[in-house]
Each structure stands twice: as structure tokens, then as C-alpha cells.
Design brief:
Elements lengths: L1 H40 L27 E4 L14 E4 L8 E3 L4 E4 L8 E5 L10 E6 L21 E3 L4 E4 L14 E8 L15 E2 L2 H4 L17
Antiparallel strand pairs: 1-2, 2-9, 3-8, 4-5, 4-7, 5-6, 6-9, 9-10
Length: 232
């Protein structure tokens, strides 16, 4: 009987912990969501939170890839089971207007079927020399998939060197499903290498890195529960 009570207690504690995690995740997202909505409706009202493209916080290795307000960050939660794998930078303009630049020297590829994404291989991680990482940029197209990626990088581009600050394209709102826009922004993430020279799936958070130290800002939802990140 004692063993059954222990098992029951364990199940109850696990359920309560799960509810708390889900509730906390919704609070994190909602706090930032309200500011994102306010910014989209009236960008001037949040001008103090806008970070210029190319700016850098202190001696952080990565420069800001585009102008905008960082609305969502690494491990934010939008719904049950969802964990955000990067950062979302909102511009407050129409699609195809706000430029996107590479954050660091690397080698750019664009798969043949990628309408709105490019990925850049960085052979030696500036924070962990000798480790290869990948930087991923997406939503660079209109709602129907018309690309805003510059002509220099057509589908099928493979391992083309691009220095930091190279123009990649313009912010868009392509979600991957034609006619179902996301809202104009850039989604940026840092992806780990599989050890064989290939990038892992960006859809799984365990394959991505917290970009806080790369940008010198608080970009992890566990450390930053609800604030909009800015350069200290």
C-alpha cells in the first residue's frame, strides 16, 4: 500500500510540475507578445527598443543582423510542447524593405527548395574555437513564397564565402505555408554541427544554441522571463 501511495504522489507531483512549466511558458510569451503586438501596430511607440542593423554589444562577436526589436528569444514557448529555437527580430515595416546582413564571416548555402532561408557555416566558433557552427536566417520571402533573398544567392548555392555585413535579403513574412503569413520579421538561430560537417535540424531546440553570449544580450527565456532584450 505504501508503494502505491509513493507512486501516486510521484504522478501528482509530475502533473503539477508539468502544469507549472506550461503556465510559466505562457507567461513568458504573453509578456513579450503584448509588446510585439504594440510594436507592430505603432513602431514609433517602441523606438527605444529598436536595435540598429550592424550594431554590436561590447566585444560580442556577432553584429545585429537587421534593424528591429527582438520580440521573441531562445526557448520562448508559444504553445504546449513548443520551444523557440532562435530569436525573432521585428521591423515594423512591410516585407521586402528592411535589409538583413550576415552576422559573422562564413560560407553561405541555400538548398534547392529553400524559398525564404539561407544558412551560413562558421568553421570556427568565435566563442569555442575549433567547433563548427551554422547561422540560419529565415522568413525572407512574401506570404506566397516570392523570395526576398538577393540574386547573388540563388537556390542551390553551396558554400560561398560571405564576410560579416554581407547583404542577404530583406525581412519577410513567409511561414512555409503559402497564404499563411507569420508577420514581417527575421528568425535567426545558431545550429550545431553533426560532427560530419553538416547542420542538424533547426526544428529541435537541442540542436540549437542560446545566442546570448554571441550578441551580448539576454536572449534566453529562462534568464529573461518577459523583457524585450536590448544592449546593456
Amino acid at each position: 500500500m505504501k508503494k502505491e501511495w509513493i507512486v501516486l504522489a510521484f504522478i501528482i507531483i509530475s502533473l503539477l510540475l508539468g502544469i507549472f512549466v506550461i503556465y510559466r511558458g505562457s507567461l513568458l510569451t504573453n509578456a513579450r507578445s503584448r509588446q510585439v503586438v504594440a510594436f507592430i501596430r505603432n513602431p514609433e511607440s517602441k523606438e527605444s527598443l529598436v536595435i540598429p542593423a550592424g550594431s554590436r554589444c561590447g566585444d560580442a562577436p556577432f553584429a545585429m543582423p537587421t534593424r528591429g526589436m527582438i520580440g521573441f528569444i531562445w526557448d520562448d514557448s508559444f504553445r504546449i510542447g513548443h520551444r523557440h529555437t532562435g530569436i525573432d527580430i521585428f521591423t515594423g515595416t512591410e516585407g521586402g524593405v528592411t535589409p538583413i546582413y550576415s552576422v559573422y564571416d562564413g560560407y553561405l548555402s541555400r538548398l534547392a527548395d529553400w524559398k525564404s532561408s539561407v544558412i551560413i557555416r562558421i568553421p570556427s566558433d568565435p566563442l569555442n574555437p575549433g567547433r563548427q557552427i551554422w547561422t540560419y536566417y529565415t522568413h525572407i520571402a512574401d506570404p506566397d513564397g516570392k523570395t526576398f533573398i538577393v540574386d547573388n544567392f540563388p537556390p542551390g548555392t553551396t558554400d560561398v564565402f560571405v564576410p560579416a555585413g554581407t547583404l542577404l535579403g530583406y525581412q519577410g513574412n513567409y511561414s512555409g505555408t503559402p497564404g499563411n503569413p507569420t508577420g514581417v520579421h527575421l528568425h535567426f538561430s545558431i545550429i550545431e554541427d553533426d560532427g560530419q560537417g553538416n547542420f542538424l535540424s533547426e526544428l529541435a531546440i537541442e540542436n540549437t544554441l542560446d545566442s546570448s553570449t554571441y550578441f551580448g544580450m539576454s536572449l534566453n527565456a529562462h534568464d529573461n522571463p518577459g523583457d524585450i532584450p536590448t544592449c546593456p
